[in-house]
Amino acid sequence: MANNSSNEKRPGFIRRIWNGFWSPSGVLSLGFLLIAGFLGGVMAWGGFHWALEETNTEQFCTSCHSMTKNWDEYTETIHYNNHSGVRATCPDCHVPHEWQYKVKAKIMASKDLYHEIIGTIDTDEKYEDHRLKMATSVWTKMKTTDSRECRNCHSFEYMDFTIQETRAAADHQKALDEGKTCIDCHQGIAHGLPADYLEQYKLIAEGIEAAK
Amino acid sequence: MRQPVLAGILAAATTLTLAGIGLAQSAGGLTSLRGAAIDEPVVLDQVFQQDTQRFNREYRQQPPLIPHSVEQYQIDLKANQCLGCHDWSNAGDRSAPTLSMTHYLDRDGHEMDQVAGTRWFCNQCHVPQVNAPALVDNAFVPSVAR
């Protein structure tokens, strides 16, 4: 073909792409490379996602000694034990669903390995000393994201205020009107509260409001 | 010389153990914690619902009843979630009744801005109200005639 290409018409654009696609690159065809690449990509991405989800299980979270105290506190709350049997597990509240936020949270969480190794909160006393600091970081996250993780399950849109307790219905209506977020009232729903929690929370909320 | 003695001790120990087990089994028989026979089903208590209306006090010093659920509220050395609404500093915002001012007096009668330590554990006196029958019969007569 090459020797008479000078007097033959040059093939069309689509034909040239088609030929190029199936012409060998070394030993393997470009097509084979693409298909193998695609399948390999699926496997790699699936494997990555699977591994990421494995770190999103209760068993994984509580496999560290540091997580036993907050786990025990959580088991006494409504998100663990309730009339309907629907539960919120650790990652439901602590790991965002959206990919970019999830990966960020996972990267941030790698510091927990360091603290588990040096034993930052490995006794009750140390845990109490750090309780406010840990609560502060979660409150800050919840406040700045408009309680994003709460809202994965809870939504004002589908709340029937008429079957709530009167005071809850009134306060939820007020929250809706004033643009408040879940964490503004619901601190300490899954873990114990530090001393002066309300004053501390108000300081954090004011700081975030001022920074806006 | 030694072996018969050892065998005797072993035999005595075995006999005593078996006899002890037998006696323990026959003494009194099995009873359940609630006094029902073991093959008799024990009916669970009914779940009673919260009463949400306001009740009059039955005697002047009666601590007011709580018209909402409180199971999930933390009241301990570190935090008291009741105060999140009922402390004088929050009650207005949350449209909740303020604590009685007697709860801000220390044991010597000095007025304080924070709730007194002696009044910290709300549910020592205040209890949620439910539509349940009295747990025990009693002959209580309210101070006020109804």
TrEMBL record, chain A:
<feature type="binding site" description="covalent">
    <location>
        <position position="185"/>
    </location>
    <ligand>
        <name>heme 4</name>
    </ligand>
</feature>
<keyword id="KW-0479">Metal-binding</keyword>
<dbReference type="GO" id="GO:0020037">
    <property type="term" value="F:heme binding"/>
</dbReference>
<keyword id="KW-0813">Transport</keyword>
<feature type="binding site" description="axial binding residue">
    <location>
        <position position="191"/>
    </location>
    <ligand>
        <name>heme 2</name>
    </ligand>
</feature>
<feature type="binding site" description="covalent">
    <location>
        <position position="150"/>
    </location>
    <ligand>
        <name>heme 3</name>
    </ligand>
</feature>
<feature type="binding site" description="covalent">
    <location>
        <position position="64"/>
    </location>
    <ligand>
        <name>heme 1</name>
    </ligand>
</feature>
<dbReference type="InterPro" id="IPR024717">
    <property type="entry name" value="NapC/NirT/NrfH"/>
</dbReference>
<comment type="function">
    <text>Mediates electron flow from quinones to the NapAB complex.</text>
</comment>
<feature type="binding site" description="axial binding residue">
    <location>
        <position position="154"/>
    </location>
    <ligand>
        <name>heme 3</name>
    </ligand>
</feature>
<dbReference type="GO" id="GO:0009061">
    <property type="term" value="P:anaerobic respiration"/>
</dbReference>
<feature type="binding site" description="axial binding residue">
    <location>
        <position position="112"/>
    </location>
    <ligand>
        <name>heme 1</name>
    </ligand>
</feature>
<dbReference type="InterPro" id="IPR005126">
    <property type="entry name" value="NapC/NirT_cyt_c_N"/>
</dbReference>
<feature type="transmembrane region" description="Helical">
    <location>
        <begin position="21"/>
        <end position="48"/>
    </location>
</feature>
<keyword id="KW-1003">Cell membrane</keyword>
<feature type="binding site" description="axial binding residue">
    <location>
        <position position="67"/>
    </location>
    <ligand>
        <name>heme 1</name>
    </ligand>
</feature>
<dbReference type="InterPro" id="IPR051174">
    <property type="entry name" value="Cytochrome_c-type_ET"/>
</dbReference>
<dbReference type="GO" id="GO:0046872">
    <property type="term" value="F:metal ion binding"/>
</dbReference>
<feature type="binding site" description="covalent">
    <location>
        <position position="93"/>
    </location>
    <ligand>
        <name>heme 2</name>
    </ligand>
</feature>
<comment type="similarity">
    <text>Belongs to the NapC/NirT/NrfH family.</text>
</comment>
<keyword id="KW-1133">Transmembrane helix</keyword>
<feature type="binding site">
    <location>
        <position position="112"/>
    </location>
    <ligand>
        <name>a menaquinol</name>
    </ligand>
</feature>
From TrEMBL, chain B:
<keyword id="KW-0732">Signal</keyword>
<feature type="binding site" description="axial binding residue">
    <location>
        <position position="86"/>
    </location>
    <ligand>
        <name>heme c 1</name>
    </ligand>
</feature>
<keyword id="KW-0249">Electron transport</keyword>
<dbReference type="GO" id="GO:0042597">
    <property type="term" value="C:periplasmic space"/>
</dbReference>
<keyword id="KW-0479">Metal-binding</keyword>
<comment type="subunit">
    <text>Component of the periplasmic nitrate reductase NapAB complex composed of NapA and NapB.</text>
</comment>
<comment type="function">
    <text>Electron transfer subunit of the periplasmic nitrate reductase complex NapAB. Receives electrons from the membrane-anchored tetraheme c-type NapC protein and transfers these to NapA subunit, thus allowing electron flow between membrane and periplasm. Essential for periplasmic nitrate reduction with nitrate as the terminal electron acceptor.</text>
</comment>
<keyword id="KW-0349">Heme</keyword>
<keyword id="KW-0813">Transport</keyword>
<keyword id="KW-0574">Periplasm</keyword>
<comment type="similarity">
    <text>Belongs to the NapB family.</text>
</comment>
<protein>
    <recommendedName>
        <fullName>Periplasmic nitrate reductase, electron transfer subunit</fullName>
    </recommendedName>
</protein>
<dbReference type="GO" id="GO:0009061">
    <property type="term" value="P:anaerobic respiration"/>
</dbReference>
<dbReference type="InterPro" id="IPR036280">
    <property type="entry name" value="Multihaem_cyt_sf"/>
</dbReference>
<feature type="binding site" description="axial binding residue">
    <location>
        <position position="68"/>
    </location>
    <ligand>
        <name>heme c 1</name>
    </ligand>
</feature>
<dbReference type="InterPro" id="IPR005591">
    <property type="entry name" value="NapB"/>
</dbReference>
<keyword id="KW-0408">Iron</keyword>
<feature type="binding site" description="axial binding residue">
    <location>
        <position position="126"/>
    </location>
    <ligand>
        <name>heme c 2</name>
    </ligand>
</feature>
<feature type="binding site" description="covalent">
    <location>
        <position position="82"/>
    </location>
    <ligand>
        <name>heme c 1</name>
    </ligand>
</feature>
<feature type="binding site" description="covalent">
    <location>
        <position position="125"/>
    </location>
    <ligand>
        <name>heme c 2</name>
    </ligand>
</feature>
<feature type="binding site" description="covalent">
    <location>
        <position position="85"/>
    </location>
    <ligand>
        <name>heme c 1</name>
    </ligand>
</feature>
<dbReference type="GO" id="GO:0046872">
    <property type="term" value="F:metal ion binding"/>
</dbReference>
